[in-house]
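thread: overnight batch results

M.L. [08:02]
morning all. the overnight job finished for the chain we discussed friday. pasting input first so we're all looking at the same thing
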Amino acid sequence: MSAGAPLLPQLTLRAVVLGLVLSAVLAGANAYLGLFAGMTVAASIPASVISMAVLKVFRDTNILEHNSVQTIASAGEALAAGTIFTFPALVILGYWNTFDYLWVTVIAGLGGLLGVLFTIPLRRSLIVEQQLAFPEGTATAEVLKLGGAAGGARHLAWAAAAGALIKLTQTGLRLWPETAQLAGYLGSRAIGYVGTNLSPALLGVGYIVGLNIAMLVFIGGAISWWVAIPIYSGLFLDHDPELAAQLASGAGAADLANAIWGRQIRYLGVGAMLVGGVWALISIRKSLWSGIRSGLRAARRPTDAGYDHTDHDAPMKVVLLCTVLFVIPIFGLYFAIVGTLGVALAMTVVMLITGFLFSSVAGYMTGLVGSSNNPLSGITIATVLLTAALLAVLLGRDAANGAAAAVLVGAVVCCAAAIGGDTLQDLKAGYLLGATPWRQQLGQALGVVSAVLVMAPILNVLVAAYGIGAPSPEHPASLPAPQANLMASVARGVFGGGLPWGMIAVGALVGTAIIALDEYLARRGAAWRAPVLAVAVGIYLPLELATPILAGGLIAHFAARRNPLADAGARPGVLFAAGLITGEALVGIVMAIPIVLSGKPDLIALGVTVPAGVGLLAVGGVAVALYRVASARENAA
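M.L. [08:03]
and the structure it wrote out:
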């Protein structure tokens, strides 16, 4: 830490403007990625490189300005995660037909701002006293110290162009299918399936999260698709008349496998995520209490002339006042849904308690193992399930708006937890660089506002162009929105019944076993770990999405073995991978606009289709390029 460092300009006008633009752009890109793949990726390093490339035209720019840009910009990615994991559930439930601008803006925006506030009392304990690693925050600080990679912006741009071109060719021109897959019946009923999505963005995701997490995601997929689905199709299909009828009608193995996964097997992931969310809270209970006490003690300390600017948080009085002001409109919206003051108050209390607790959990887990292991899905599902159970008691299980009300409580908590983890990552980078915490906290809040202003329009364009949730005749290749689908299923199941509780219980046992394995690995000091949420994500993702993620993780592993310094500091591989994600996501959004305006999903389709192998070769070429960029010796200089 640069304690006592001179106070350089930080939240300058140019830094704020660039950060706000990047926050909105990254929010859109990650909204698409999250709906498509069920995962988002940290945006701090690409934002840092872009800042250094753009602001170098000013001679007096400095490292803390660049840190302010990435702080503001990264809020867009985090808020996108909180938004797309929850709000699409309201469309899937049929409560909304489109994303209401006022509701999305108020709920997601205030949830994100609460996430900033909730983490302020924890900064001193988690970052200064406990010195948690915060891997992405530490890496961002190193990138800024080194001044960025030689050619870093070039890597980002070329990769974005490649990702955009393949997405345009595949989804817009429809020259080849989006998936290469092979499925068949093993015997009379058991199903075998292999497949991969032809997405450069998923390669990028796998590269960024690394081999450990990518492998765990794939293992989760293997549990579902190579163990659970064959067992269910071979032994238990007769218990589900609809699936049995589909088999009797001669359905293809791939179609039946997807149907079994959607109706039964993905709920293994719900059970695993519930256990993971509860375990995260239990495992940090002592550190959480210690952090709260430390933050409150620091807030009472007088700010005299000798008090270092690198230790200045936003004043606690401001934190408490803003919390009250932000909660009031949320309470009003909850009352508008349920129409009962007591129930709306209960929803608000649940939101406040779980929001603070789970924002703290997200921040602590992010500090331990990074943003990729933020237990966002698990804690949100736990919140939705708890709220739905409470509302079922207060309103009755036949309440028309009960499921939607539970999702909207979960939405605030999810946005708060996503921003909470991101805020502490950015504060870690600032701590290492000598930034002023309250300025970063203000910058994070500005980034939340910028991102939330574009979220509803982007979601409306995506749902109109591609569809969200289960495929339909109108949208045969809809965006899966896996987390939102599960939120909707859990909330609907509490009120309308039909949740496969047996599968959820088995998933909870699987999650418990994975936690036990991870604890064993931790006690042995193993470098390879098994965070339960990574496996749970794989369980409820289609296997075709987990396959390229694993490929990206393998590329990262072998590139690092060839040249251990290739991704140190400058991180050209990470920048190339981030470019693949950004290019594919942005062209997906841009293509959606003419589709929506014309009402023709195949507006620019060529009407000619080549085998999926051609697409596989194209994505393979991108994989080779990613490996070469990441492992090149000159990048390690």
